C-alpha cells in the first residue's frame, strides 16, 4: 500500500504490519521456549506459539474480509524489539536472569501487539467492519492473556530467583573482599609486630651494650693514670 489516505487504508496498513509482526514472532517463539529454564515459562512460550499461528490466520481472514490481499511489509518495530531481546539474551547465561530477560523482551512485544490490535479493533468498529473487529478482539484477548501469564510466571518465582542470584553474587563478592582485607591486614599486623619486636630488642640491648662498654672502660686505666704509674716506676 503506497499511501494512507483514510482510516480504512490505515487499518489495512496496520493489519499488514501486524501480519509481519506475527510471522516474526512465530519464528522467534520456538527459540525462546528452547532457551527457557523455567518449565512454566517454556510452556507459556509454546502455548503462545500456537496462539500466534492462529493470529496469522485471523489477520489473513480480516484482510480478505476487507477485500485486501496480504502484501509484503516488514514490521520494523517488531524487528527492533526482537533484535534487542535477542541481543540481551546473548549477554546472559542460562538461568533465572535469562528467563527474566526473555520475559522483558516478550512482554515488550506483547504490549506492542496489544496497542496495535486495540487500535485496529476500534478502527474496524467505527468503520462498521464488525466481523473484522470481532477477529481482532479475539486476538487482543489472547495477547492480554499471554501478557498476564508472563507477569504471573515472573512474579511467582523467576523475579525472586533472579534477585536471589544477584544477592548471592553480592555476598560472594563481599566475602572475597573481606578475605582479601583480612589477609592484607594480617600481613600488615604481622610486619608491624616484627618491626616492634626488633625495635624492642634493640632498645633493650642498647643499655646493656652501653653499660658493658662503660664497665670495660672503668677497668682500663686512664691515660693520666697510666702516665703517673710509668713515672713512679722510673
Ligand atoms: Fe500475536
Order of helices and strands: HHHHHH
The CATH class designation is Mainly Alpha
Q: Evaluate the radius of gyration.
A: 42 Å
Largest sheet: none
Annotation, overall tally of beta strands: 0
β-sheet strand percentage: under 5%
Task: Report the bound ligands by name, code or SMILES.
Answer: fe (ii) ion
What count of helical segments does DSSP give?
6
CATH fold-type name: Ferritin
Name the structural class. mainly alpha
> How many independent structural domains?
1
Topology:
Blueprint (H helix, E strand, L loop, with lengths): L6 H29 L3 H27 L10 H15 L5 H31 L3 H90 L3 H11 L1
Helix pairs in contact: 1-2, 1-3, 1-4, 2-5, 3-4, 4-5
The structure holds fe (ii) ion.
Fe (ii) ion (FE2) binds next to helix 2.
Give an account of the 3D structure:
By secondary structure, the protein is mainly alpha-helical. The chain has one domain (7-176): Ferritin, CATH 1.20.1260. The chain is built from 6 helices and no strands. The chain has helices spanning 7-35, 39-65, 76-90, 96-126, 130-219, 223-233. Helix 4 (96-126) packs antiparallel against helix 5 (130-219). The protein is rod-shaped and about 145 Å long. Residues 215-222 have low confidence and may be disordered. The structure holds fe (ii) ion. Fe (ii) ion binds at residues 22, 52, 55, 113, 143.
